[in-house]
TrEMBL record:
The chain crosses the membrane at residues 12-30, 61-79, 306-324. SUPFAM superfamilies: vWA-like (SSF53300). This is Ca-activated chloride channel family protein. Keywords: Cell membrane, Membrane, Transmembrane, Transmembrane helix. The keyword Chloroplast does not apply. Residues 92-289 form the VWFA domain. InterPro entries: Aerotolerance_reg_N (IPR024163), UPF0353/GerABKA_families (IPR050768), VWF_A (IPR002035), vWFA_dom_sf (IPR036465). The keyword Nucleotide-binding does not apply. It comes from the Bacteria.
Amino acid sequence: MTLSFRNFSAPWWFLLLVAIGALVVGYVMVQRMRRKRTLRFTNLELLEKVAPRGPSRLRHIPAIVLVLALMLLTTAMAGPTAEQRVPRNRATVMLVIDVSLSMEATDVAPTRLKAAQVAAKSFAEGLTPGVNLGLITFAGTATVLVAPTTDRGGVAKAIDNLKLAQSTATGEAIFAALQSIDGFSQVVGGPDGPPPARIVLMSDGKQTIPTENEDDPRGSFTAAKAAAERKIPITTISFGTADGTVEIEGRTQSVAVDDDAMKEIASLSAGDFYKAATADQLRKVYDTLGEQIGYEIKEADASRPWLILGTIAALIAAAGSLVLSQRLP
């Protein structure tokens, strides 16, 4: 990691380096004066008898280490900062899960729904504590099962109890998520404004209600545009394969996944699109989202290492001086 003066919160403390430099110059001058006084003692044979043999150049080591300690401590006082990955302390996420009959398809073992439940629970339980998580399911209608909360237990329990139903009202689900976020933001919004929000939408099929036209006033594309206006991105997960089928009223029906619609929803809302054709891929997608949503990169204080190194160097300087000169520097 490279630090520059832009990465110090109080760089004026580096003015102390001038004082440290003056100490170094003073030390060198004192040593030279000491050497001159020694040379004035002309009877070198008598000098060797009355003066104890010194530790020669080793005696300078404690002073050098002490200067290094002062430089490290000065750097710590200047407040070095660095980009660090820290947990978010405020954010709102609405997890929106498709529970239409197509989720009973077995192209993802054991079924799309079962695989989705396992991955969604892992995602919910792994989110950092500062994220408020809500849960919405949708088929023919959208249902808010859990309002945004930091209580992961309620979300996990609701995921375990998901039930399938007919039709796919994707637009209604997005509008329900936006409404839930708006209501929560009015309650928790403080001087810093409402917490940043995101919708995570997982679906396997094309919208069927109110019509198959996503640009309908209550359609998914219209809802995605409304999310963009509120600056709430929608992360979409297209889950399943083109070979999925289900038995409905004794007839086998194809329920191929609709990647194009999910891509467009993500694009219109300035969100991200993910494709998951297996349970393992879905788990990895949720793991990635957990990292993106639960953590952020911030400029944080990085003075502790400098302070520790400076203190250790000062202790080494003191110990070395006691051993070599029987006194503290």
